[in-house]
Amino acid sequence: MFQDTRPADLDDGGSIDRWAEFRVEHPRELQALLRQLCDGNVPVHLNAPGGIGLTTTLWSLDAASDRLSFSADDGHPGLQGLVDADEATAVAYLDSVKLQFELQGLLLVRSARACALQAQIPRSLYRFQRRSAFRVRPQGRMAPTARLRHPAIPEMSLALRVIDISAGGCALLLPHDVPPMAPGIQIADVQIELDVETRFTLALALRHVTALPADGQGLRLGCEWVALPPGAERLLQRWIDLTQRRRRLMSL
């Protein structure tokens, strides 16, 4: 399942956008995501009112002319219907991320050798991460840190290393020389520092405590995020996505 995903219209018709947490509007970030679709030859599903739709790929992105070009088969029965509708909802998937955006100004362009479906570059898109997103295991000396006070000893400040992290929670390393914590408690005012630019404060629900292997350094605290603050979910999703991308590049 995808988080708060709806198949088409994301506008509730009210003054408050419930999906603003997932909206990408900065031109550089938006175009970077679209270029990933283009460079990766990722399938893009286009759907217009009336059940008209087709699957294509993003062929080119021309920021100067504010146009996207999608590959098109002139003989596809749904192609002309999309052009006549003059609007469509586009959906594509980048690993564990779903991208959804609206297309306007659809235009069919033909040449002697090819056919393309053009549209205006969207002013925004929505980026949804799977609830069961890949769990990232940070590596290197700059591992994320959780700063908190021991729930049973408030005067004890702790800086615990994050063993792994996902869109739903994280696992922390509790050293052997720190008093244990009991599953089922909630820890307030935890500052998560993913890197020097990505940090947020929230509560953690401690779901389970497990011993690491004999050569480990302590206990593993399995925690769930509690009420991520505004903006934190998007920061977290972006960090996870970038970490996964770096990991793939390193493995090439």
The residue fraction in helices comes out at: 10-25%
Please report the distance between the alpha carbons of the first and last residues: 30 Å
Secondary structure tally, helices: 3
Biggest beta sheet summary: 9 strands, antiparallel
Average pLDDT level: 82
Instruction: Please provide the count of β strands.
Output: 15
Order of helices and strands: EHEEEHEEEEEEEEEEEH
Structural class: alpha+beta
Summary keywords:
252 residues, alpha+beta, 3 helices, 16% helix
Task: Report on this structure.
With 252 residues, the protein is of the alpha+beta class. The chain has helices at 27-39, 79-85, 232-251; strands at residues 23-24, 43-48, 52-62, 67-71, 87-94, 97-104, 107-110, 115-120, 125-129, 145-150, 153-165, 169-175, 186-195, 198-211, 218-226. The protein has a nine-stranded antiparallel beta sheet with strand order 1-9-6-5-2-3-4-8-7. Strands 10-11-12-15-14-13 form a six-stranded antiparallel β-barrel. The longest helix has 20 residues, at 232-251. The protein is elongated. The two termini are 30 Å apart. Residues 1-9 have low confidence and may be disordered.
